[in-house]
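Handout, page 2. Input:
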Amino acid sequence: MGSKNIYAYNLAMLGKQGWRLLSNPQSLIGQLYKAKYFPNCSFWEAELGESPSFSWRSILSGRPLFKAGVQWCIGDRTQVSIWNDRWIPMCPQYLIHKPPDCVFELVSDLIDAHTRQWIPEAIHTIFPPDIAKKVLSITLSRQIRRDKLCWSPEKKGCYFVKTAYWIARTKVLENVLVSTSHGNPFLELWRRLWQVGFKEWMLENALHLKKELFAKLLMIFWALWKNRNDLLWNGTKKSADALVLSSLAWLEDYTKAQLVEKSSHSKPRKTWTPATSGIQKLNVDGSFIPNTTLGGVGGVLRDGAGQFHAAFAKPIPNVASARQVELRAVEAGLNLVATLQLSTVVIETDCMDVISSIGDMQSTYVHEEGLIDNIRQVLHQRPHIFLQYAPRACNRVAHRLANLAYEDSNSYVWIVQPPDLILELLKNDCKPLG
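Output:
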């Protein structure tokens, strides 16, 4: 279980050179390759050429790997083709089909140049409803920046050999089996494995695996079963590389959650605390259910004595991930602060991933980069707004308001007088204050 396909691993290692070429085309080596091998076209259209160097041969050998993992992070939208480039989150390229007589070619054609917002009518005209929702879930940056290539299997958008290896191994296995299959390169593999008693062999050897490897094996089998049911009942399925990556990500999230739960039993329960005297605190939270595109955000503003000042609950119709809805909660909180014309405020969220992504200036977050850009811009302009982390137990009021927004699908804002559904939670938060 721990052995590697050497050829696939070599492709993943060579991919680092190609990634440097793609992510930093203005570097000296990038300009040299551009001048020699593809002066009149893009990297994706470049050919081997005459008398190519060994390094150039190696980079081109890994190009299919790049195509499987690279995705555009939308910036000024002028470089990205709607039909030929990967830019829609969690949407395989084979699902994108250009309608007859369609005049839209670039992603910039789908965006209002003045408001820098999507044009919903145009998007719903050329895409089916499920893909249109994914497009509308991409938050566009208000700042002008160039389109950027990102490594989609990693949430920070940076190339990692580990995730590249999984994609490369799948590609290598497909090439080996394609001559013996009929449409599905893995069909013959599974048929032969079951003929030689794969189930019995797997069960026998699984008992000798380390605990960590056995957990990964079970998670992948569960993902295969879920993928089979999705195909049978919903007509949707994931590719092999996406299946493995998502199942290992679920296992990592589950392991982290178990560690948090164990540590929480040994520590006293934390409660909400106000900001220092004279400073107000705004707690925000997001609500999102996987496999849907609907979410909700909520927030509550209180002063140094714990007294209620304002609150909001707002549904979010197009959401791509839990992290995105948590970021939208911070954005909605900043909008409330601007509306109330507050000067110094502490904003608390129970999502540490949000704190780190906003503070991480070196990474590119594929699906939320525009949203993160907008939040950073506001925080830069308002230096007396502080963003910090709070445990879930200290964020229960905002969590209830976010759930309300998700369930009710109406937007609410309360000033001075809190709604009845959070009165008990507000009282419980203030009990430790005396």
